[in-house]
Amino acid sequence: MTLADVPAPRPSRGQVAIRVSAAGLNPADTNIAQGKARLLVGLELPVVAGSDAAGTIEETGPGAVRFAPGDRVFVRTALDKPGAFADVLAVDESLVAAVPASLDLGKAAAIPTVGLTALQALRDALSIRPGMRLLITGGAGGVGTIAIQIAKILGAHVTVTASSRGEALVRSLGADTVVDYTTERVGDVVADQDAVFDMVGGRTLREAFGVVKPGGKVVSIASVPDAESARQVGGGAAAAALFRMLSARRNQLARRFGVSYRFVFARPDGDDLAELARYVEEDGLRVIVDREFPFERIDEAFTYLGTGRAKGKVTVRIARDRLV
């Protein structure tokens, strides 16, 4: 990726143009830039990158009636139609929601992908209900810090894996039990869970199957996508066949333990972003930003994201004077 001057997009029918104030970085942005997602996301290059943004409505296209110029909004774009790392973003208004009044735009930009991932995984894929016992692996990262809070809002008892460096953070967000993954193995200290939300993959995911009750559910965002997930994000028959083969061992493991397993991608959805905004306003959902970089240092931001040390989100400030 490089910084360059390109013409500002104009909104077409059903779209709005957003004057971007801040943008959030996600591992998916790196994967797309490196070509690792090309079986799932077809892009005609060059393309403006980035999927998470917050800013103000600058212009509305024909038929777009949900927002007006000056409204503070945030958005997660479709993976095949990015554009958040820019001064202006044109996007379908159905993917946009109003920013909570209590948040500045810098923090709002940290919500979309991680918030949608956590909400859709917990509410839809895992069907979390009051009293359920949930294990979240990798709870101090961007998705994890939101997932802990949403799980508590939904009424779950939450066990979280984190390092000693992240323990205070995850406890402050509501974790009931913390497992130090640097000194303890999940399979040795956790049992009888109704569900697992995995953000680590590898050995941790394999061990997670053994801590879930028969009939429970395991969802991951850190393993190999399955065929259904590949189709949901636009992958063709070849991608579905490939990921069906690559995920076969995970599915076999799930059957052996009598649990269900699936991989989830965040689905862009303005209504779900509005739900997250309500959690912020009504339930005190906190947004954790580890570091914010100026736009001209976005390369450093991606380098830092790649270290895996961030506690919460990494963001870039597009406009210095528009974060309120």
Structure report:
The longest helix is centred in the middle third of the chain and has 14 residues, at 112-125. The model has no long low-confidence stretch (mean pLDDT 91). The chain has helices at 27-33, 105-108, 112-125, 142-153, 164-172, 186-189, 202-208, 227-232, 237-246, 248-257, 270-283, 298-306, and strands at 15-24, 52-60, 72-76, 88-92, 96-98, 133-137, 157-162, 177-180, 193-198, 212-220, 260-263, 289-294, 313-317. The two termini are 28 Å apart. Helix 3 crosses helix 4 (142-153). The chain is built from twelve helices and 13 strands. The strands form two sheets. Strands 1, 2, 3, 4, 5, 12 and 13 form a seven-stranded mixed beta sheet that branches. By secondary structure, it is an alpha/beta fold.
